[in-house]
Amino acid sequence: MDIKSGFIGAIGNTPLIRLNSFSDETGCEILGKAEFLNPGGSVKDRAALYIIQDAEAKGLLKPGGTVVEGTAGNTGIGLTHICNAKGYKCLIVIPETQSQEKIDLLRTLGAEVRTVPAVPYKDPNNYVKLSGRIASEMENAIWANQFDNLANRQAHYETTGPEIWTQTDGNVDAWVAATGTGGTYAGVALFLKEKKAEIQCVLADPMGSGLYSYVKTGEPKAEGSSITEGIGNSRVTANMQGAPADDAIQIDDTEAVRMVYQLLEKDGLFMGGSVGINVGAAIALAKRIGPGHTIVTVLCDGGSRYQSKLFNSDWLTAKGLLPA
Ligand code: PMP
Fold first, then answer.
1. How far apart are CA 308 and CA 137, in angstroms?
2. Which of 106, 202, 241, 261 would staple 176 via disulfide (CB 3.0–4.6 Å)?
3. What is the gyration radius of the CA atoms in the chain, in angstroms?
4. Which pLDDT score is estimated for 181?
5. Which of 35, 44, 191 to mutate to test the pocket of ligand 1 (most atoms within 8 A of CB)?
6. Is residue 164 part of a domain?
7. How far is CA 101 from the centre of its chain?
8. What's the average model confidence in pLDDT over 148-171?
9. For position 291, which CATH number holds?
10. In what order do the strands lie in the sheet with 200-206?
11. Interface pTM, i.e. ipTM
12. Is any ligand 1 atom within 6 A of the Cβ of residue 300?
């Protein structure tokens, strides 16, 4: 018998998928950790679970309590599913620039959702800071604080990293991923480096994020912008601090969109925009290090969360991103 106990029991142990068209093109094994197959549909189910379990273990989250979080959507979705399964309430603060699909889904799941204007982190009304303030003003509530709560990267250090190691029998040459909070990238990188120091850990970054320049120069500096959601950061979060990074690769939206459409049309994989950045960086790395290597990245979430944007030709045309 192989039966998972409820929503929570079904988190993790996702397949590692060979991205056939890109692997054949580059001569490298390009492997994607299929996080879109988590029960809440994204890589963030793992962090959401660890954050809630950590708060319970510390006695911070009590029966009938509320979990408050600022999120681009996926963490909120994971948290709300878990709160439902455990009898907690969930209050989500999300920038209004995020896809309507994620906002609608959060409401369907039962979260109290507050959409707010997207303003930079330094602004006191930034969605992350606002969520922290709301939590501190409520009775029996915790702030998940995914960006600086190390339970987030611990989830990936204890589960995603070891799964990748076992699934490849340790035959990994490189790990490449974009970061939002840094939890996935850092947790996996820290685990893999401990196992085998020669594994190259490469940060993928969209335009408009400061992390590429952080890895290259030590200073986060951002230029441009990206249509991708959930990744990129103007600051180095607690989850990113101390994460090994041998290199960084910046991928623009044109390339990310091309990747997502090739995955759909040639591999049958319907993926969100951050996957385009991840796979774009994996391909760039494959070209740099040459054939015969195994490169692992993350398939963070599925395309249905971005149907109205990334998969809408009018929207893509308006952004000047419609693929040929
Ligand atoms: N891709 C998507 C679609 C996401 O929602 C997120 C999380 N914000 C990430 C990638 C990055 O994950 P992490 O927060 O672990 O860096």
1. 35
2. 202
3. 19
4. 98
5. 44
6. yes
7. 17
8. 98
9. 3.40.50.1100
10. 16-18, 29-33, 294-298, 174-178, 200-206, 247-251
11. 0.99
12. yes
